[in-house]
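new request in #modeling-help
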Amino acid sequence: MIVSVASGKGGTGKTTVAASLAAVWGGSLLAVDLDVEEPNLHLFLHPSIEGNETAHMTVPVVDEARCTYCRACSDLCQFKAISVMPQLILTFPEMCHGCGGCMAICPEKAISPGQRELGEISWGEAGTAGFLMGRLRIGEAMSPPLMRQVKAKLNQMIAARGGDAIIDAPPGVSCPAVNAVIDSDVIILVTEPTPFGFYDFKLAWEAFAPFGKPMGTVVNRAGLGTDDIYRFCRDKRLPILAEIPFDRVIAEAYAHGRIIAEVSPELRETFVSLRGKIRDLAECCRPREAVHA
Amino acid sequence: MREIVIISGKGGTGKTSLTGAFAHLAANKIICDLDVDAPDLHLLLRPAREREEEFHSGHEARIDPERCDRCGLCASMCQFGAVREDQQGFTVDPLRCEGCKVCVAFCPAEAIRFPEKHCGQWYVSSTRLGPLVHAQLIPGAENSGRLVMVLKQQARELAKDRGAGLILCDGAPGIGCPVISSLSGTHLAVAVTEPTPSGRHDLERVAGLCGYFQTAFAVIINKCDLNPDEAARIEAFCRDWSYPVLARLPHDPIVTRAMIQGLVVTELPETDFSRALRQSWTRVEELANRIG
């Protein structure tokens, strides 16, 4: 089972929830940080890193001796990554999405694959759990290509070790967030009951509900703000799987890099119960196979 | 004319609440919400929309099942795993389609259409604190960086029309395409951080990003009292890199109280927090005016 922890609004407690779930999960688990722009899970799980690799995207390199300036490549490119002038061809590798169209369409075979660095993928162990993260190169604009490579590694690691994965997703509801949750079995939305939290929560629900995946809510900083989120969840039949109280002790523990599930027996119980509810949610919503007599 | 963008790296540090208060304190400005993905500033400013436009960006591939002869070339060429085959034939998953046109160009049956994508709406509104340029990306859509550029362009035109001396922008979290777009043409980026391991880690990365694009960078430490040791480490980082620290704000429930009332914090009775915030705005303005 792959569980992604997402949110809409940033700073609602995704990493807090993902780290605490990892701490109580038991069994074989892989903790994955797919918030590649600002990965934070390692700050709480303190993994020992055993390996890493640089992730690249394939971008065009033009052999100008062979180029006839026919413009087939620049006419196809949707991302303004190649520009052809009468006697000059320029590439803008940072604009390239890596579709390979220019290389395939060039009648002179004048374009060959080069590389743009996307960032770094690292993996290791965090206690009994496996650990995997992506970290976007500073200055790189596109996070989904790196996320796709981290997910490929996730699939390899899960195939090798078995068990479950918990994904710490990026905030927002556009392409990076969608990329993080799209291949998971269960989506957990972490929110806070403030007007900002509620507004972004509704956006996240709108973005993710069409995937038809089992989805549940964790209300962080419960007791703060308003009860709009509870009404909305009731209307949409979105189960509230856990509430983490608004408490300065928790905020300070987080600020000191502590895992919230380890702050008190009550909080540990909150996450143990959340783990059970996530498993139930995955179980009850799993598409049933035809029953044979 | 000056352009200031409020960013953070990490989400939830207080960007929008601070931008709202700065919009209250600043004179003669255009306000702009560049967090087009999860915009919240309108919840404080309660805008009255004066202009609404559709935002179209990029295209998406759609296979016409009538013309498709099921050769599978599209699926084998797609680098994004967006083409699926089932008993009904081949279809494109719009969530995975990057809009690259490779399948369209190579389909031997010319069976793939390539319509433009409607990605969101943008607005010019009036608010009690001044004109607001803002947008809403359709949840799940892409090209937020291009929408950010559209908003900046609109804000600049509006500033010219109305003789405004400042564009004040609320930015997005992270360091990816919308944040990079929000830095272009910006005179000063002010990062709001918090003294937590994540806050400091993400501040360092967003500072690196501003260095990469040579944008002047200053810092406000919010919720300063949550972890004084971590706050001291942030101060040391800023000292090492000569980033001015413009304010140290205490953790104050006034931020949530204002949000619930649809107001900005400086519209409520003054607390230590709002007093410090008021002083910090003077410093932000001074700094922005000093930058050439």
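bot summary: The longest strand of chain B covers residues 48-59.
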